[in-house]
Design goal:
Number of helices: 3
Strand content: 15-25%
Strand order of the largest sheet: 1-2-3
Structural class: alpha+beta
Radius of gyration: 19 Å
Low-confidence stretches: none
Shape: extended
C-alpha cells in the first residue's frame, strides 16, 4: 500500500486518485485518510443521501455561526452571476 504525505497529496491529488491500488494519506505521522479505489462502481443512493444530509447540516451550522442568512447568500450568488456573464460577454 502506498503512503502519501498531505503535502504530496495536495499537490498530486489528480494523479494519486487515478491509482489502481489503495493508499494512505499521512499528516504528522498520523493517518489522515485512506483511499480505496472502486473502478466502475457508483456510490449507493443511501450513501449519497447520508453524505448530503451530513454536509447540509454542517454547512447550516457554519452559516448560522457566522451569521450568514439566505438573503446574503442570494445576493452573493447574483453578484457572482453578473460578473460571470460580464466576463463571458467580453470574449
Amino acid at each position: 500500500m502506498r503512503i502519501a504525505l498531505v503535502e504530496e497529496f495536495s499537490g498530486r491529488a489528480a494523479v494519486l486518485l487515478r491509482a489502481k491500488q489503495p493508499f494512505v494519506v499521512m499528516r504528522q505521522r498520523r493517518v489522515a485518510g485512506i483511499y480505496f479505489p472502486q473502478p466502475d462502481a457508483s456510490m449507493p443512493i443511501e450513501m449519497k443521501r447520508e453524505i448530503f444530509g451530513a454536509m447540509s447540516t454542517a454547512l447550516a451550522k457554519h452559516l448560522r455561526k457566522d451569521g450568514i442568512g439566505q438573503q446574503a447568500i442570494h445576493r452573493d450568488f447574483q453578484k457572482w452571476r453578473r460578473a460571470r456573464r460580464a466576463a463571458r460577454s467580453r470574449r
